[in-house]
Structures are given as C-alpha cells and as structure tokens.
Amino acid sequence: MIQINTTQSAEAVIEEMQSLARQCGFQQIGVSDINLTEAENQLQDWLARGFHGEMHFMERHGVKRSRPDVLLPDTVRVITARMDYWPESTAAPWPVIADDQKGFVSRYALGRDYHKLMRKRLLRLSNSLEALLGKMGYRVFCDSAPVMEKALAEKSGLGWMGKHTNILNRQHGSYFFLGEIYTDMPLPLTKSVSAHCGKCSACIDICPTQAIVAPYQLDARRCISYLTIELRGAIPESLRPLIGNRIYGCDDCQLVCPWNKFAQPSMESSFQPRENLDAPQLLDLFAWSETEFYQKLEGSPIRRIGYDCWQRNLAVALGNARPSQPIQQALRARLPIVNEMVAEHIEWALKRQLMS
Predict the structure, then answer these.
(1) Catalytic one among 33, 143, 278, 284?
(2) Is 143 within any annotated ligand binding site?
(3) Where is the 4Fe-4S ferredoxin-type domain (predicted)?
(4) Does residue 42 belong to any structural domain of this protein?
(5) 298: containing domain
(6) 3-13: per-residue pLDDT in tens?
(7) Same structural domain for residues 123 and 27?
(8) Residue 98: inside a domain, yes or no?
(9) 200 labeled part of a ligand binding site
(10) 232 and 345 share one domain
C-alpha cells in the first residue's frame, strides 16, 4: 500500500487538499473509504423494481459499480469533488417553464459539456496531490465508468441524499457536478454530514410526472430527465402532456428545494448559456436542420441524444403549446421528412393542436 509522504496531521492534509482543489476550480472535495454495502443493496433493489427503465448500463459490470476496488484494483480511498454549475447569467427558470412558446433546458446543459472539463481538472488535481503527498496510483472518473458517485459524495461529506435523490449541500444547494479520483493512497477520511430535509416534501409534490414515488425513491421511467435524455424510443403517450415545454431534462425538484436559495452561481465560462438555450423559442429550435443541430450544439451535452430525439422532444412541447397556425404549419412541414418514431410524436402534437 502507498504511504502518505507527509508528517502533517490528518486535518492539515485535508486542508491542503481542499486548497489545491479550489485552485483547480472545485468548490469542495471529500475523501471516503470504499465500503458501499448499503448503497449496493439499495441499487439492487432499485434495479429489481425496474426503476431504471431502458438504462441497461446500470445492470452491467456486476459489482464494479458498488465496489471500487473491483473496478480499479488496489483502490482504498475515493476523493470526491464538487463543482458548481448554475450559470452566472441565465433567464429565470419559472417564467420560461410557464411560457408554452419557449423550451426549457435543464440548467446544467446550457453551456459546454462538463465531462471533459471535469476530467481535466481532476487530472490536474491528482498531479497536485502527488506533488504534495507523494507518488500514488489513481484514476479519475466523471460519468465515464460504473461509479456510484452520489453514494460516494454522501459518504465523503459533500452533502446528503435529498428526497429527490440528488445530493444536497447545506451551503450550496444541489446545482453541482461530481467527479471522483480512485486512489491506492490511504488518505485521511472526511466526515459525512447529517440530512436536513426534515418533513419537507416540496420536491415530491412538484414533480410533474410524480416520478419520486416515495422519499429517496425515483422511478426513472416517469422522470422527465429520463424521458427526454435517456429514452431513445417513443415517450409514453400518457406522460407527454405532463412534460409541458421541458425539452431537455427537468429541474423542477431542484428549483423548488429550499436549500437551493444558498446555491452559488458558477464563474466557469464554459457553463454559461449558448445559442439562447436558457429561453429559446420552440419554433426556432424546431426549424433547425440536422446539420444545424450538430453545428450549433458542438461541445454541448445535448448533442448526445441525437437529432431524432431532439425533434421528438420539441414535437411534444409544441403539442403542449396553445394552438397556433405557425405551430401547426411547422409540424405539417416536418412530418414527411422524419422517421417513424418522430412522426408519431408530430402526429400526436398535431392532434393536440387541432383538438384544443
């Protein structure tokens, strides 16, 4: 096992690590051990209930997701890092959600894709930690492998698991990305924090599709983020009216959370809105060709759903908008040139437009 090359106290080591993390653009780090037995049991129960829907990657890899030393042999600690993402300059969310002529995009996806930025910063932090503490074996992760990032973040003290299943921080709310460094260095541990949701059920009550079936239990098959991002086929017809104008993800459970009044805006230029995505007109987005979609959203996390799912999501939002000739004309014009899956949603939207 690698030994820490320092005579400092555990508290001093953690303080130095936090300082290095801030220099790399993170707001906080924590250190956890690799015992995720409780989280593993919860994951198996969640999978057994089918709550993961078509996210079959959640079933793969055996116990690698919940046992860090199986994914990366010799791992004894996980450094978890938190980076705030709420854009410093963005349109107020609720007025956008209330405007059926506009589309709502989850605030984490307004700018550039965070994965590359986080990985680069995690690598920089790892190099800085080696310079401080000595040679160590490590590997960095940011949604790039089977990692239980929320369980690790909770265990290392970055926050607690809220009833909406997002990690909450008492001083910073929940608008942050998570990344991990698996290492063979026996670093001092940071303490977990107590939960502070109390009797609050705001996130459960606000969910448009009632996807939070009980406190701390999310049925992803009903979640708008799953339906608009992870699902590649047809959105269940019964859920389409409930999606409203949310075209990529959903922030309702976070927007209503009292702890997010403490959220701090991000200074990262990469996370600032592009292409007016913080308050876009639905018809403007629907008019994009496939080429425009990929060009305008280069470097955006939205790109990964592909043009067809983008058109599908927009069709649902247009179907939920108040009837208008421009919307009906746009839907009819697009109908002959789309695939069967998108056509189904456009036809549904047209029926909604003509029936309203």
Answers:
(1) 143
(2) yes
(3) 186-217
(4) yes
(5) 211-258+274-355
(6) 666 667 899 99
(7) yes
(8) no
(9) yes
(10) yes
188 and 294 housed in the same domain = no
The answer as to whether 334 is a domain residue is yes
- Known binding residue 309? Answer is no
33 as an active site residue: the answer is no
User: Would you give the distance in Å from CA 90 to the centre of its chain?
Assistant: 18
Residues 266 and 287 in one domain: no
Whether this model's pTM surpasses 0.90: yes
The verdict on 159 and 192 lying in the same domain is yes
Which H/E stretch holds residue 265?
none
77 in a labelled binding site: no
Same domain, 304 and 347: yes
Domain tally, the chain: 2
Helix or strand holding residue 307 (H, E): helix 306-319
Q: What is the mean pLDDT of the chain?
A: 96
| Nearest residue to 318 (alpha-carbon basis) of 101, 121, 140 | 101
Q: Are 170 and 258 in contact (CB under 8 A)?
A: no
Burial of 111 (0-12, 13-18, 19+ CB in 10 A): buried
Q: Are residues 22 and 67 in the same domain?
A: yes
142 is in an annotated binding site: no
Q: Does a structural domain hold residue 217?
A: yes
Is 314 annotated in some ligand binding site? no
Neighbouring-strand partners of residue 32: 78
CB-facing half-sphere around the CA of 311: CA atoms within 13 A: 26
Helices assigned H by DSSP within 49-113: 68-71, 93-98
Q: What pLDDT, in 10s, does the model give residues 47-96?
A: 999 999 999 999 888 899 999 999 999 999 999 999 999 998 899 999 99
